[in-house]
Structure formats: C-alpha cells, structure tokens
Amino acid sequence: MAGPLPIGDPAPVDGRLPADLPMDPSTPFSAYMHVPFCRVRCGYCDFNTYTSGELRGARQDEYADTLGGEIALARRVLEDIGGLRPMDTVFFGGGTPTLLPPGDLARMLDAAVSAFGIVEGAEVTVEANPDTVTPAVARTLADAGVTRLSVGMQSAVPHVLAALDRTHRPENVRTAVDAARDAGLDVSVDLIYGAPGETLADWEASLEAAIALDSGHISAYALIIEDGTKLARQIRRGEVPAPDDDLQADMYELADERLAAAGFDWYEVSNWARGDEYRSRHNLAYWRGSDWWGFGPGAHSHVAGLRWWNVKHPAAYAQRLAASESPAAGTERPDPVAHQLERVLLETRLSDGLAIGDLPLPHRSRVAGLIADGLVDGGAAIAGRIRLTLRGRLLADAVVRALTD
C-alpha cells in the first residue's frame, strides 16, 4: 500500500467545491479511474494497491458500481459550480485494471460518458498486465470506447522481471500487443530501468524488444526506491544493491539514442512517441495543469487550482459512498509560490518547454548560465522557451532549482 496521504484541510462531507473557484469552461477536463487491485505486490511499488488478502470489507466484484457512485457525485458537484464539461481523456490506472472483467471497465466508462459527455476523438487508455490481455478482452475494451492500451512490459529479461517481482511471461507482451492492435487500439509500452542486477546489456535487450513491438509510444522510467516497499527493505538489509546513479544515466542515454534511431521523439523526460498523435494526451493534461477528477480510493483530483484526494482503502471508499458522502479525505489550494514551482517542475520536463517570459524577472537571468552549462538548448532559449538538452534531462532537478530558488 502507498504511503500516507498529504496533509491538507478537511474536505466537505458533501464534496461541494468552493463557490469562488475561477472556473474556465475552456480548460480541458479529464477523468482518472483508479482500479486498486493486483494479484501480487511488486517489490518496488508504493501505489495504492491491494491484493485479495488485503481488501477486508471491500469486494472486487462490486467495485464498478461503487465507483459509479463517485461519478454521480462528481456530476452534481461540477454542475453546481458551472464546471461540467465533456471529457477529453480518460485513463484507467492501478493496480491492474484488467484484473476486472472488461465488462466492468466498460460500465465504468459508460457511467462517466453518461455523466459528463466525451469529446469526439477522445483518448481512452487502459493500463494492462500482459498476462491479462486476450483477443476477447481487447475487443471488448475497443467496443466499449477504449482507444489505447498501456502495456506494463517493464523488461524483456527474466532475471530483471524477477528482481522487480513481475510475474508475467516476457513472450506474453507480444501476445498482448498483437491482440490490442488487432482490435484497433493504439499501444504504449512501459519499461523500468535500473533494477538490482540489471546490466547495460540487459537494458539494451529490453529496449530492442520494446522497439520490435512497433508500438507508437514507449515510456522508460528509472527505478526509484520508495520508503516502505519490499525493495527498500531488501536494500536496507544489504540483500540487493541500491540503484547505481551513473549506470541509470548510461541507461537513459542508451534509451534516448536507440529510441531516436527507431523514429521516436522524446516529448517528456521519460516518454517517447512516434509522432505527436501518439503522445499520451492524458499525461499531458497533468503536466500542463488541466482539470481532472480522480475516481477511486486514494485518487487525486485537480479543478481550477483546487486539489483533493480520496480515502485510501477500498472499504472506506465504499462506505463513504454508501452513506451518500464524498470519499474525499483532504483538500488544498496551493499558493502562487507553490503553483509557480509546480509549473516550472512540470513544464521544463516537456520538449515543448517552458516560456521564459513566465518566469519571475530575477530567475530569467539564470537561463544564460544554464545554457553555458549545457543544460538548456540555446536556440530554443533565443525563441523564448526553456528546452532541456540531453544533459539537462539527466539533471532536470538542478534546472528546476536554478529557476525557482
């Protein structure tokens, strides 16, 4: 299970949003559907997920109907404040959404479309463990309106998968991708690098295997050791080595080189796409500060600068909704300083970059030093935007500190 929730102000029991929120009906609106179920807990994961033995008071077969209760609440709340808009993107994440029957996912999507509407050409993504995707599952999802499958490949090397506690068979990644493509779905593949015992050659093998799948999108994330996870405990006890920063940097550079050669362009520090049409529009909504409602236990939401988050356990979540109460546990409205920090943090990670004119005057003068250090692209800066170089992507946190401290 994930770490503690943020500390914020108490959330209204009825879920009502403040009347003074600066609602802008032109701001895109997205929905995130959290499915908190996993067959096993991966050693590195600190997401809000639960295996069957941890549910205690919540039923997986009732989850779609329970989440539908929050969708109904969200419609009332947004309608009251003039914020009701059709969805631009929908994302089913977890956990393992495809542990639910595809019909349940379809009902959740139908409930959201009925409540909010959905724009023509909307992106609807479902995350999937490769072992849970069959042609029948893919066809049912496509028929329901899903447009994109995000496949958790992580690695093509068995001992690396074992180090991550991933249980899927490497060959099933190809099976899942083919099933999705045959059903007319776009495909994204997720990779993780820097696992204990993973070599540069192992990582190269995984990259080549992912590229060979011919998907339109590949994500590659450095393994981060989160407190409270099994992997953190193993490292603390000296059972496995901690990730090597230099090796992870070499792995990132190799990924950028191989993916570029295969026709992928980076558009966010950890994401590459074969053309703009394959970029994750849902994740771009987060990075660009759009509005979204996060449905499900532990899910976070953001509307017009206000943030809130739900209670974590599926049983507590279900109990709140059964009592006609909001499942929100806390809320906050970041001040202008915090908002500016977040904007710099997120937008500098994008290849589109951050407008230099959006920085406070004292911080604009630091851009020249970042160019001299090889962290920011000089040509892009002349055009008025901060765009990270390859070295800058490896040291993105240092760039953010320079532009905000």
UniProtKB/TrEMBL annotation:
Keywords: 4Fe-4S, Chaperone, Cytoplasm, Heme, Iron, Iron-sulfur, Metal-binding, Oxidoreductase, S-adenosyl-L-methionine
GO molecular function: 4 iron, 4 sulfur cluster binding; coproporphyrinogen oxidase activity; metal ion binding
Any single GO CC term annotated in Swiss-Prot or TrEMBL for this entry: cytoplasm
SUPFAM superfamilies: Radical SAM enzymes
InterPro entries cross-referenced by the UniProt entry: Aldolase_TIM (IPR013785), Coproporphyrinogen-III_oxidase (IPR034505), Elp3/MiaA/NifB-like_rSAM (IPR006638), HemW-like (IPR004559), rSAM (IPR007197), rSAM_sf (IPR058240)
Single biological process term from Gene Ontology: porphyrin-containing compound biosynthetic process
Sequence ranges assigned to domain Radical SAM core in this UniProt record: 23-265
Keyword flag Iron-sulfur: yes
Keyword check for Flavoprotein: no
Any Pfam family the entry gives: Radical_SAM
UniProt cross-references to PROSITE patterns, sorted A to Z: RADICAL_SAM
Location relative to the cell: Cytoplasm
Similarity section: Belongs to the anaerobic coproporphyrinogen-III oxidase family. HemW subfamily.
Alphabetized PANTHER family for the sequence: COPROPORPHYRINIGEN III OXIDASE, RADICAL S-ADENOSYL METHIONINE DOMAIN-CONTAINING PROTEIN 1, MITOCHONDRIAL
Function: Probably acts as a heme chaperone, transferring heme to an unknown acceptor. Binds one molecule of heme per monomer, possibly covalently. Binds 1 [4Fe-4S] cluster. The cluster is coordinated with 3 cysteines and an exchangeable S-adenosyl-L-methionine.
Protein's recorded name: Heme chaperone HemW
Classification of source organism: Bacteria, Bacillati, Actinomycetota, Actinomycetes, Micrococcales
